[in-house]
User: Fold this.
Amino acid sequence: MAKYSVVSLIREGLRGHAGWRRAWRNPDPRPAYDAVIIGGGGHGLATAYYLAKAHGLTDIAVIEKGWIGGGNAGRNTSIIRSNYLFDESAAIYNHALTLWKGLGRELNFNIMMSHRGVLNLAHDEHEGRQLKRRIEANRLNGVEAEWLDAREVKSFCPVINIARDIRYPVLGATLQRSGGVNRHDAVIWGYARAADALGVDIVQQCEVTGIRTENGQVTGVDTTRGAIRTPKVASVTSGHTSIIAGMVGLKLPIQSHPLQALVSEPIKPLVPCVIMSNAVHVYCSQSDKGELVIGAGIDAYNSYTQRGSLNIIEHQMASLCELLPVVGRLRMMRQWGGIVDVCPDASPIISKTPVKGFYINGGWGTGGWKATPGSGHVFADLIARDEPNAIAAPFALERFHTGALVAEHGAAAVAH
Ligand code: FAD
Ligand code: PYC
Assistant:
């Protein structure tokens, strides 16, 4: 981006924007690669980037059935935070938060990272106690977190209703000041451009339809644009992890659900931070365009449709009006859904599998965006070395046999 001056911007404008160079190539798939990554979302592209950058593995392809960033990467509300309860989660989400802080510079791409702070509200004493306990756990893990009482919440985010006579009064909140939001498509484009520059082939409009194995070892993939030979296949296909795993006969403990979000008409700056409430059950931030970006929990049924039911939206709008009564007359502009893969412990899978050369990164449920750089970084390490590092190891498939679950339903903050 920086290569283009204001003069070239004006020149291109005058000639109808016909002379721009592609920011990344659009190659056909080659017959063989050292590794194939299925899925061109944030996690897949980050994995490819770190494989090339940190491990020198550049003969790789990212195979995407649609367009890059068209899955959950393009559908999420881009909330970033690392205030999870357990040590294992703190390690991966804080690793990601550290990488987010320098990512714009690393990729030379403005990812519009805004550390505007994330509030998780408490509406009864029990919830307050749980959140305070989480703050203690966070601090033990070096995760920045603090408690605000109701008056401090009001001063940090004046639009929140802290009246005591409402259904779920706000008693206080945790605040992670380094949490915030960023711009999802900029992250995708930044990783794509950087991975491509290192030699990674990003192949779009190409669906993986099968995975070939011989004697328990991966040998390649079948795609809608032909077969590709490779000894390593990595699935990073949020929402479709079970389908890809099924191609090598693996059955995963994953449930796939729709998760919706919506945006309002644009308004002047009103919400200065991210607001999340588990009990009233809605979350909200304001985009740089001025739209309120709003969401809540999953639709309860299993589905692969990228939409959801109206009752979820009705519920979250009622909740929003309770928390921020001033938005009562705001009009909503767009609604959409993505498919999220949920594990029984609300933690992800980053793992080798019983099939040699087949790796899985998935099951991030409602909260994988915040992990994108950390997830890609440790997954690349796993693929390159065929061994998980200390951050990835707790998220291996074995935990579903050993019972060493990382139960993060509370900290997931979006019901599922
Ligand atoms: P994706 O971006 O979905 O990438 C997977 C890709 O795989 C897709 O592009 C898909 O087309 C491709 N694919 C699938 N099957 C195949 C195949 N057979 N062949 C080739 N390609 C294939 N997380 C947060 O941390 N904060 C949030 O605020 C947040 N908000 C959310 C709001 C909504 C409405 C939704 C739906 C999710 C939200 N999430 C949030 C979760 C987050 O979006 C996901 O956890 C994360 O984006 C998953 O990353 P990914 O790269 O694996 O997925
Ligand atoms: O995990 O913080 C989160 C989140 C916010 C919105 C959706 N997921």
